[in-house]
Each structure stands twice: as C-alpha cells, then as structure tokens.
Design the sequence.
DNA sequence: CGGGTATTTGATAGGGTTCAAAGCACGTGG
DNA sequence: CCACGTGCTTTGAACCCTATCAAATACCCG
C-alpha cells in the first residue's frame, strides 16, 4: 500500500485525510503465484484490484492462439479500474511472479469517487495508464526490434523508480524471453537477438528476471525515448 | 450533439434530465478545416473537446520525424477527456477533414462529475477509448499487413454505425494512404499493396476518402476481428 | 544425475522497407 | 481547351529485418 501512496504522491498533493481514506477503504489482500490468473477475460467483475507487490501481465489471445501481452502492471498500479464501469475486462490478468493484490468492491470505489479529491486520484491513474498505452502504440508502430525493447527497459526503469523498486543495481522484471516477445510483438528468437545486441552495446543487461541499465543516456537514444508521457512532474490540481 | 447522445444511448440508459444537462452544458462550437490543429501537444488545456462531426487523428511524432497516428476520433467522441486531469495532451489532435468541435471548460466538466450519472457517462467513454487502444495494441503486435488494415475497417464500420454514419453504402474515411499507413505503422507503399489485396479479394474497397465493406464476414475473418471489446451491448449500471 | 524448460545459434524464406519513378486526378491560369 | 503544377496512388526492384523451422546448449529443479 505504501507503494501506491508513493506513486500518488509523486504526481499530486495528497492530504493526510485522503491517504487515510484510501488506506482504510477495506482492502482484501490476496497472494498469487507465478502464472496464476487474477482476472479472467469476460468474467463479471465486482471488485477492483490494486497490485501491492510483484508484476502482472495483461494478456490477450485471439482465435488463432496468438498471444499478445497488452501491458504490464507494476506495484502500485490499479489493475482493472475500467472494470468498474465496464463490468468486465476483455483481457486476462496474469501474475508474472508472486504477487500481492488488494481488492475492494466496486460499490466502495463508487463511494470514493463521490469525493472530488479521491475522484481525481483515480482519474489521474487511469489517465496515466492511457498515455502509457498511447506511447506503446507509438513504439509498436514506429520502432523496430532493438528500439522497442529499449523502450520497454526505459519505461520500466522510470515506472519502477517511482515506487522505489528500480535502483542503481537495476530492477526485477520476471518475464521469460517468450513473454517479453509476446509483449513486444515479435518472436522469441528475434527478441533474443535484440537482447544480445543491447547487451553487447553495453546499454542494458537482462537475465534471470533481473534487468540492469548500464548506460541510461545511450539506452534512451536507442529507444528515442521521451519520458514526457509518464507525467513524472507534480500535477497541479 | 445528437451523435454524442446516440452513442451514449447505445451503451447505457440515459435519463432525459441527464441528456438535457449534457446538451445545455454551455458548449462553444467551432469549425476546423482539413489538417488544422485542434490541440497542440504539451499545450496547457483549459477546456475539453467533443467532436460533433468529422474525423480527427491523434498524432504523435518522435524526434526523428517519424509520425504515428495513435488513434482516430469520430463524431460523438470526447477527444481529450484525459486532459481534464493531466492538463495537457502528449499528442496532437489534427482535423482530417472539415470538423465541428464543441468544447466546455474543464471546470464545467468537474462540476458535471459531481453527479454520479454524468460521472458514469464520462467514465464509460474513457473506458471504451481505453479498450479500443488495447485492441489496437493487440492488432499492431500480432496482426500483419492485410490483417491490420482489415481491423481498421472492421472497427470503423462498427464505431461509425453507432452514430449513424456507416450505412449499407459504406462510410467516409478521409485519410490519405500515407495517413492510413502512419496509423497502421507501415509504409504507404506497403499499405497500397495491402489495400489492393483487400480490394481484389472483394472484402473492402477504399478510394477518395470513402470506404465500403463488400463482404463483412470475410473481412472479419481476415482481421480475426472480435467485436467484444467495443462493448456494443447495453451496459448495466 | 535426469528431464523438462528457457536460452542461444544457424539456415532459409518471406514480408516489409527503401529508393525511384511512372500514372492519375484535379485545379489553375493562360 | 489545353498546358502545367501538385498531391496522391500505383508499380518496380533491391535489400534488410523478422519469422520460421530446427537443433544445440545451458539451466533449474526434483
């Protein structure tokens, strides 16, 4: 829960009362293991999930069995805030490793959005998620191979930095190469070669679920990465 | 404004009072011409835009001049609802043809979200936009060439159908091939060959800004299109 | 140590990009 | 009415990135 609050505070003022309201909203905690399904696609949703710890993949598979990871959730992310109005998710939420997830009923979320301050907090998180998706569309459309992968590492470095998970020593990223390939929209064979290229260029190393950026500026250049979309500055409300 | 209301009613019950509130919210109308910029990236936003008529592209260009169209806005879409909390957009809104745009100050939007019913209406629109993006990520990652283009036509047929623009005769789609290529993340040369393939397979024709689906089932099969994400059914609130 | 999974490498084919140029539609002015 | 300009579409050819198929190696866990 501290991670969630840390992320909120990094972008907006948060009063102590609001923080208390959030913390005491009556979260039910639950732990998932690697490859456990947290939310099934199409399933009727009655509560909203907050990731306290670990990593989650948003997984979509079409008729032909091709799997695409649409996005990654990290500690402090509201995983299915849109489910509150849509009542379901069209993709699957899968734990990428051991995960702690807290959930509250939709009804409680609706009560919370009665307060303008809490409403803004939730809206802001949804908006950030939206621009992250937009940036990823840009990356998938206009970057290739190495550039896309570099983008992933850049974004993760910053998103995980916000919640204190990424440090000088790097950060955990519990994805197999196959899974990262499903995320980047390429084959695992090709991904492997891209990783090799990044490693040999001494930009970033990635092995056994741990990533370490060796050359931040070089990596950003390779990805043509502009961090503006993450809205890392404080937002005036 | 009727298009907006039509779209809302297609997905949720809308009371007459709420409809009146929306209509009389004090919209300021303005007309834009082809390639006019409606919102500049990074610009401080003070009002929120609703597209009454026409088509808008969300345009993102990175340092190297490569342009990616992140999404398309059609009549009835709230174009920059996330700008209310973020205060800016990281992409540009460009009119793809003559457009009628209505706008209201952010302050008014915030007042409206005081009402639970209006709040849900706005949330739902934001959520739909989000799942449309997710579906496009899936398409960019896992479909190629012809499949991606077929997806665009499928989605447009349904989205424009909701607001009464797509009919048996087809629908307008004022994109040059270069622009559609920027949307699909490919070169205009390759796009041209994909369009040719779709045309010769008698699935869809597209010329001078007008698209006509010749074989809906065939087109859906080609795109492996599943319309579930558009949430076309009524949503229980 | 053994067996399964994940990573790495090789060889080949094909889809997509790139560069280049020709064809076409439309508007404008002489 | 035709010449000309402009922007969009279409086609061609060569090259490169990425997918595909296949196999070898490394790794982890029981």
Sequence:
């Amino acid at each position: 829960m501290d991670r969630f609050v840390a992320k909120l505070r990094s972008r907006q003022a948060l009063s102590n009362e609001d923080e208390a309201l959030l913390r005491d909203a009556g979260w039910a905690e639950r732990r998932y293991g690697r490859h456990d399904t947290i939310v099934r696609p199409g399933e009727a949703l009655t509560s909203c999930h907050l990731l306290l710890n670990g990593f989650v993949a948003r997984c979509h598979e079409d008729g032909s069995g091709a799997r695409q990871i649409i996005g990654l959730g990290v500690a402090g992310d509201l995983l299915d805030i849109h489910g509150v109005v849509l009542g379901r998710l069209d993709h699957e939420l899968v734990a990428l490793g051991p995960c702690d997830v807290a959930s509250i009923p939709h009804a409680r979320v609706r009560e919370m959005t009665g307060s303008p301050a809490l409403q803004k907090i939730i809206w802001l998180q949804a908006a950030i998620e939206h621009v992250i998706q937009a940036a990823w569309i840009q990356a998938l459309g206009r970057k290739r191979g190495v550039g896309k992968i570099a983008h992933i590492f850049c974004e993760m470095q910053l998103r995980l930095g916000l919640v204190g998970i990424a440090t000088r020593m790097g950060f955990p990223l519990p994805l197999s190469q196959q899974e990262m390939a499903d995320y980047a929209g390429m084959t695992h064979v090709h991904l492997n070669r891209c990783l090799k290229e990044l490693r040999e260029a001494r930009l970033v190393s990635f092995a056994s679920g741990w990533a370490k950026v060796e050359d931040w500026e070089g990596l950003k250049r390779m990805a043509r990465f502009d961090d503006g979309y993450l809205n890392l500055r404080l937002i005036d409300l």
In short: The first strand of chain B starts at residue 28 and ends at 32. Residues 176-178, 188-189, 192-193, 195-196, 207 of chain B lie near DNA strand D (CB under 10 Å from a C1'). Strands of chain B lie at 28-32, 37-39, 47-53, 55-61, 67-74, 92-95, 99-105, 171-172, 204-207, 210-213. The first helix of chain B runs from residue 2 to 11.
